[in-house]
Amino acid sequence: MRWKVYGERPLYENAWVNLYATDVEQPDGLRSEYYVVKLRNLAVVAVVNDRGEVLMMWRHRFVTDTWAWELPMGLVEDDETPAQAAEREVREETGWRVGTLTPLIYAEPANGITDSQHHVFRADDAAYEGPPTERNESDRIEWIPLADVRGMIDRREIVSSGSLVGLLYLLMDEAAG
User: Fold this and answer.
1) For the chain, how many helices (H) and strands (E)?
2) Is the Cα dihedral 18, 165, 162, 86 positive or negative?
3) From the centroid of its chain, how far is CA 155?
4) Going by C-beta distance under 8 Å and a sequence separation of 6 or more, which residues neighbour residue 20?
5) pLDDT at 174
6) List of residues 6+ apart from 115 with CB closer than 8 A
7) Does the reported pTM lie above 0.85?
8) 115-143 pLDDT, tens per residue?
C-alpha cells in the first residue's frame, strides 16, 4: 500500500538536520501532516586485518550519554561519493589509510521517519599513517577480534546502527565463508 504525498514544507533546516511537515494520505484515506527528518548520507567502514580483527573506536555519544565501540563513520559531503567519504573518515578518525573499499551493505535505518542512507564498506587492507586528525571522535582506537564482536553486541558494548549493520554482515560473511 502506497501513501500519497501532496507536498511538504520545511519546519527547520540547517547543515546537520532538516525537519519537514509532509502532507500525506494513508491507504485508508486518512489525510494528515507527517513529520520527516531529512539527513545527509552516512559512510561506514569495517576495516578488517589479516588476523581477523576489525578496527573500532571507543566513544561517548552525548545524546544518549553512553559509551560504546563503533566503526569509523561520518557524513558524506556534497562533493564526494560515499566511498570517498568512507576513506576520508577512516583516515581522519583513526589515522589508518585504507586500500580498496568494497561495498558491504546498504541500509536505511528508521526509514519510517528519516531519509538517512547508510553506505557500509569493507576494507581488507590498511596502513597506519599517524594519529587521527579529528580529535573529537574517540578515546581509544583498537583492533577488536571478530570472534569477540557477538558478545560485545550482547553486552551492549556496540549499539550504533551503522556499526551493528556492518558488523552483523561481517559476521554472516565469516560464518558462510
Assistant:
1) 3, 12
2) negative
3) 20
4) 8, 9, 10, 11, 35, 36, 37, 38
5) 83
6) 36, 37, 38, 39, 108
7) yes
8) 999 999 999 999 999 999 888 888 899 99
What is the domain extent for residue 171? 42-176
The CATH number for 139's domain is 3.90.79.10
Alpha-carbon distance 144 to 142, whole Å?
Answer: 6
Scanning the structure block, which residue is given the C-alpha cell 557477538? Answer: 150
Number of domain units in the chain: 2
Q: What is the dihedral of CA 28, 34, 38, 41, to 10 degrees?
A: -30
Residues 89 and 20 placed together within one structural domain of the fold = no
Please report which helix (H) or strand (E) contains residue 44, including its range.
strand 42-47
Q: Quick check: 6 pLDDT over 90?
A: yes
Give CA–CA dist 151/161, Å, rounded: 16
Cell of 50: 589479516
